[in-house]
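Exam revision sheet. Question 4 asks you to relate a sequence to its structure. Input first:
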Amino acid sequence: MTLHFGPQLKEWRRVRRLSQLDLAGEAGISARHLSFLETGRSRPTEGMILRLAQALDLPTGAHNELFAAAGYAPRFGGSADRGLDGVEPGARRVVDLILDRHAPWPAACFNAGYDVLGGNTGFAALTARFGVGTAANLLDLVFTPGPVRAAIANWPAFAAAFLRRAEAEARFLGPRSPLARRLAALRAGGHLPEARAETGRPPPYVELALALAGVETRWITTVTTLGSAQDVLLEGIFIEQYFPADAETRRLADRLADG
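Answer key, structure tokens:
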């Protein structure tokens, strides 16, 4: 369902937990004007949409949704949802360089919905052990029953940390984003762990214990984010890198990469 501009603006204001007075102050307009925009009594200019979107710290996709809802053409073209084909050549070379230089250890590129966009040789060797295809979704692999979830030896701790990170990203992207919808579907299916009452930012890394070739391997995973809300061709693209956390895991990773 597509909302008109006013309801969309109000929805985002509530997601960001701002009062009309708070948002009006951030955007440099009167609370009365903001009220008129939310109720549809006033139509926003394109400049006003940009000002409000920046005050709300919205991702580019939400910028475009607000423009469309107000009857304007989207301001930004392209999307990471199209995959790496939407990335300009120079940035694509950076993505490929990070992936290639991390080999033989696994590294993969994902979009904001955690769909796999590509990976290096280490990631391909790792996922081949579980029969994972190129169209995989990392959330589904981790949270739904299957060979990957079954191989995660520390699943309760890993799933809780991973979910905390994904939920923080979903709050930024908004309740109608693909990530938020996927999390809602997983929760409705009973696949997500119980939420923990934790405050603060998610940790910068997640520890993963993975049963592989009869060995419990141990990894540290970190995320490299590319782009921002102002850089649409890179928005929502991130690279997850897996670092061996002990000598046995390092040796096994080297053997996997060698085939």
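Marking note for examiners. The radius of gyration is 21 Å.
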